[in-house]
Automatic annotation (TrEMBL):
Residues 32-280 form the Mannitol dehydrogenase N-terminal domain. It comes from Albidovulum inexpectatum. Keywords: Oxidoreductase. This is Mannitol 2-dehydrogenase. InterPro entries: 6-PGluconate_DH-like_C_sf, 6PGD_dom2, Mannitol_DH, Mannitol_DH/Oxidoreductase, Mannitol_DH_C, Mannitol_DH_N, NAD(P)-bd_dom_sf. The keyword Oxidoreductase applies.
Length: 492
């Protein structure tokens, strides 16, 4: 292999032939967006849409300033700073891989315990949008009710110390307070996480926290800021040695490359109190029907990921494409979605739930992606209540089947025992792993112990049709194994 070219601004003209690079003058870009939670997904999705807009000569006053609130975010900041905030994006298309370098990010604020630099950045009048990808479990929600969890220790701290907040939400409130005092005006808060009504949830978190310390400020935020709902979609694997080797195969030395599938979608409500980039020129859909797109994606794609990841993990299947190559797991996905999820999902323009399942099947089966079942199974304590429990409740209410969803919940409980069928150990894979594992072991003898986790299942332990099915499936999985249990469901 020829000598690798380090990724940085000075080396852009030297990049290998066929690697697309920014055509715009990055030195002339000015900040307009702060994005909190600058992981792989953001760089492959939202930052890419802005990059593509900039390639058209537009949006140059909307450059991204990255941010994080966890000490580990400093590691990403250091990597990106060393390469002038550039990222190599590698598209994993079965027809052939391609690479481009995205340059829409121009800074990353230092990470500090009191979030002072982040507050300073968001208080800058040039910032008109504050966006975030902080995971589904990062919004301080009570999983049983969907309401704001005012008793969380970090929320209690931020309410008592609004000038030294621990959370991204506390930092946003502190910045908005400065902007109000300086007459700088509001900014739009934009969630890009996989939550039904993510803008509404972000608004709830911000206003609820603000009211705990400054009700007048909360009223000002309510009256002036906007929080558009959005739906985001792109499969983006984690970066590891394989991805590093892949970017090097293109001749580029990038310490933080991102791989992604050959599909993206972004649907947003057009509610921006301080303006927005012309993202529609780069392929974004602006719509008042975001909820319909959200429901289809969250219920079928995100829910479908959970349907296949846990049985695959128990069987030692490492990738999502590998799970789809297992005929019973693939049939499980189709049967659960068609019989138990799709009946509660409305069509969107140009797409029925059934045709969306076929699209999801093709995307999950992309062998170039290498997305791991472990990554998809991570944080089931947030993903199951967010992606699957709503379909269970809809099925119980409508009288439609819930047998498959009960089986999927039982497979998750079996996974959380921490031992695969071949005897290998599952390393902790949830922020609440120790507690989940203890309950999963208890549930082997008393299955309803699993459903009695009210923060996940609410009152479903007393919903006989679902609870009885779960109590049949879990012992079968333990006694006869995953394959036999899948056969029993598929034969029903």
């Amino acid at each position: 292999m020829d000598e690798l070219i380090p990724l940085n601004q000075a080396n852009l003209p030297r990049m290998p032939e066929g690697v697309a690079v920014p055509r715009y003058d990055r030195a002339r870009l000015t900040r307009g967006i702060v994005h909190i939670g600058l992981g792989n997904f953001h760089r492959a999705h939202q930052a890419w849409y802005l990059h593509r807009l900039m390639q058209q000569g537009l949006g140059h006053d909307w450059a991204i300033v990255g941010a994080g609130v966890r000490p580990s975010d400093s590691v990403m900041r250091d990597k990106l700073q060393a390469q002038d905030w550039l990222t190599t994006l590698i598209e994993l298309d079965p027809a052939g891989k391609s690479a481009e370098i995205s340059g829409s990010m121009i800074d990353f604020v230092p990470v500090a315990p009191d979030n002072g630099p982040l507050i300073d950045a968001m208080a800058d009048p040039a910032i008109r949008i504050v966006a975030m990808t902080v995971t589904e479990g990062g919004y301080f929600l009570d999983p049983a009710t969907g309401g704001f969890d005012a008793g969380h220790p970090d929320i209690v701290h931020d309410a008592a110390n609004p000038d030294r907040p621990r959370t991204a939400f506390g930092a946003m409130i502190a910045a908005l307070k400065r902007r109000r005092e300086a007459g700088a005006g509001p900014f739009t808060g934009m969630s890009c996480d996989n939550l039904q009504g993510n803008g509404k949830i972000l608004r709830q978190t911000i206003l609820s926290l603000a009211r705990m310390s400054d009700p007048d400020l909360a009223d000002w935020i309510d009256a002036n800021c906007t929080f558009p709902n959005s739906m985001v979609d792109c499969i983006v694997p984690a970066t590891g040695p394989k991805e590093i080797a892949l970017v090097q195969s293109f001749g580029i030395d990038d310490k933080a490359p991102v791989t992604h599938e050959n599909f993206r979608q972004w649907v947003i409500e057009d509610r921006f109190c301080a303006g927005r980039p012309e993202w529609d020129r780069a392929g974004v859909t602006f719509s008042d029907e975001v909820h319909a797109y959200e429901r289809m994606k969250i219920r079928i794609l995100n829910g479908g990921h959970q349907v296949i990841a846990d049985p695959a993990e128990i069987l030692g299947i490492e990738t999502i494409a590998g799970a789809m190559a297992h005929p019973r797991i693939r049939r499980l996905l189709h049967k659960v979605v068609l019989d138990e999820i799709a009946p509660h999902v409305a069509p969107v323009p140009g797409m029925t739930p059934q045709s969306y399942l076929e699209l999801v099947d093709r995307r999950f089966s992309n062998t170039e992606i290498g997305d791991t079942t472990r990554r998809v199974a991570f944080d089931g304590s947030s993903r199951h209540p967010g992606f699957l429990v709503p379909s269970i409740r809809d099925g119980l209410k409508a009288g439609t089947p819930v047998e498959g969803l009960a089986l999927v919940s039982a497979l998750w409980a079996r996974y959380c025992t921490g031992i695969r069928e071949d005897g290998s150990k599952v390393e902790p894979n949830d922020p609440n792993w120790d507690k989940l594992q203890a309950i999963a072991i208890e549930a082997r003898e008393r299955p309803l112990a699993w459903l009695e986790q009210r923060h996940i299942y609410g009152d479903l332990a007393s919903a006989d049709r679902f609870a009885d099915a779960f109590a049949r499936w879990l012992p079968m999985i333990h006694d006869k194994g995953v394959e036999a249990s899948l056969n029993a469901y598929l034969a029903g």
